Give the backbone structure.
Amino acid sequence: MTKKKAKAIYRYVGLSLTALCFALSYLYRPYAYSHHLNDFHLSDCYTSLFGVPIIVCLTQAFFREESEKWSIPKNILYAVLFLLAWELVDGLLAKRMDWVDIVASAISGCLTYVLYRIFGFKNLKEYEDDQQECP
């Protein structure tokens, strides 16, 4: 595998998850609300659950050259912090804090890190070397 192939995989996963979020927005959320489903707030927080992997994948796919110093674990941390800051600003402007989204963002960061450790490009020597060079 090459760096180009790794970036293509990140691009495919990131864009697929983005499309899934749009589909859930237009199909699942209205269905869950209209049928009063008890889905444990999934219809409210799926954007926060998918937000971290979307940010990480799209950043790795499209902005890798500009962010060479960012390792994927740092990218995951920055994505979680970005989503937490987004929720805090939204809470200040809307005067209502959405704790479910904050918890979902933290859980998403943990799950994304676990998935990275399991499925990361360990057999891609150049990509792994780039990750280890980061301070």
Summary: Helices lie at 3-34, 42-62, 72-94, 99-119, 125-133. Residues 3-34 form the longest helix (32 residues). The mean pLDDT is 83. The chain has five helices and no strands.
